[in-house]
Amino acid sequence: MMRMITLALAAAVATGAVAAPASPPAPLPVHVAGRVLPAADGSLGFGWPGVYFEGRFRGAGVEAAVESGTEFMRLLVDGEEKAQLRRPGLARLTLQGLPPGEHVVRLEKQTESQAGGGRFIGFYPTEGGQALPAVAPARRIEFIGDSYTVGYGNLSPVQACTDEQVHDLTDSQKAFGPVLARRLNADYRLVAFSGFGVVRNYNGTSPGQSLPAIYDRAVPGDPTHPLGPDGWRPQVVVINLGTNDFSTPLNPGEPWADQAALRAAYRDRYVAFARMLMARQPQARFVLMGSDAFYDLVSEVATTLNDPARIATVRFGGLAVTGCNYHPSLADHQAMADLLQGALARFPDAWSEGTAR
C-alpha cells in the first residue's frame, strides 16, 4: 500500500494537482538546517545548497508546503524518499496512509540556486495528527567551499553536460559533506558557491567577488540581507577552497601580475578568512582541504595559523571526476568523506565542546 501512496503523491507533485486545504492546522515545530531568511508571515527563504527542514508528528498523514524557484527538492518520511518537487511555484505535498506512531518528515534541497531561491512555508499534520517537538542533532559541521562542496553534477554518468544538465544532475545531499554528516549523525550547513575561490573565481569571472566576500549573506545571490545571529555553533568547520583560484591561467587585466602574486594573495586572504572564522567560532576545530594542485598552499596557511590543536589538513587526489565537466562522481564524494572522517580522528574531544543551539 505504501508503494501506491508514494506513486500517487509523485504524480500529484508533477501535475500540481494537490489542493491546499481551506483551513490548514497549525504547523509543526521545525528544525532548520542551513541558512534561512525569516519573513513576516513566518515562512523561511533559502538559497544556499544543502538546506533541509525536519518536523516530527504522531499520526497517519502530513502536508509539506513550499514555494520553489528553480530548485529540485525531495520529501522524506522516516528517512525514506516519498516524493520529488521539480516544478516551480507554490506546492503542497500531501502524504496519507502512514502507519500509526511517530514520524519524522524532512524536506531537503538538492540543487544549487546561485540567484533567487525558495520559501519554506511549513509542515502540517493531517487526519487529526499530533505535533511533536522538533529534535536537532547534538553534532554540527559546517562545510565551506565551491562546486566540489556543492556536489556539482555528481549524478551525471558523463562528463560533458549542458548548464541544464548540471542543474538537474546536482544533488548536494549526496556531496561529501552531507555524506560524512549523516555517518556521524550531525547537522550540517553548506556555505558553497560553484565557480568561486578565495581571491579568484573560475577563469577570472565575477571580479571582486569570492566565497569569503559572500560568506556572510543569508542567501548567496542577495547582498542586501546579511546573515543575522542565529546561534549556529558548529564543532567542526571544513574549508575546501582553491580549485577555482588556480584551475585556469591568468587572463590579461586580472589584478595579479603572475602566479606568484596570485599565490601570495590566496595565502594572505585565506589566513585572514580562517582567522575570522576561528574567532567567531572559538569552540570549533577546522579541517582545511586541498587537492594535489594547491595542497602546498593549504599547508602553508595551516602553518601560518599555527594552532595544531584546532587545525588539521586533508590532501585529496586521484579522483575519477566523471561527473559533469570533470567534477567528482558519487564514488569520489564517498572517498572524500572517508578522508575527512579520518582527519576528524585528530579531534576526539571535538563533539563535547560545541555550544548547544
Layout of secondary structure:
Elements (H helix, E strand, L loop, with lengths): L1 H14 L14 E4 L3 E2 L5 E3 L5 E7 L2 E8 L4 E5 L2 E6 L3 E7 L6 E8 L8 E9 L3 E3 L6 E7 L1 H4 L12 H6 L7 H8 L2 E7 L18 H4 L21 E5 L2 H4 L12 H22 L4 E7 L3 H11 L5 E6 L13 H15 L13
Parallel strand pairs: 12-13, 12-14, 14-15, 15-16
Antiparallel strand pairs: 1-4, 2-3, 3-10, 4-9, 4-11, 5-8, 5-10, 6-7, 6-9
Structure description:
The chain is an alpha+beta fold and 357 residues long. It has 2 domains: 2-132, Galactose-binding domain-like (Jelly Rolls), CATH 2.60.120; 139-352, 3-Layer(aba) Sandwich (Rossmann fold), CATH 3.40.50. It contains 9 helices and 16 strands. Strands 1, 4, 6, 7, 9 and 11 form a 6-stranded antiparallel sheet that branches. Strands 2-3-10-5-8 form a 5-stranded antiparallel sheet. It has a 5-stranded parallel sheet with strand order 13-12-14-15-16, with helices on both faces. A hairpin with a 5-residue loop joins strand 2 and strand 3 (44-46). Helix 4 (176-183) crosses helix 9 (330-344) and helix 7 (259-280) crosses helix 8 (295-305). Residues 1-21 have low confidence and may be disordered.
Oligomer: single chain
Element order: H for helix, E for strand: HEEEEEEEEEEEEHHHEHEHHEHEH
Overall structural domain count:
2
Total number of beta strands: 16
CATH superfamily of the largest domain: SGNH hydrolase
Strand content: 25-35%
- Tell me the radius of gyration: 21 Å
- Major pleated sheet: 6 strands, antiparallel
**Helicity, in percent?**
10-25%
Regions with pLDDT < 50 over 5+ consecutive residues?
1-21
Distance between the termini: 39 Å
Number of helices, where a helix is a run of at least 4 consecutive DSSP H or I residues = 9
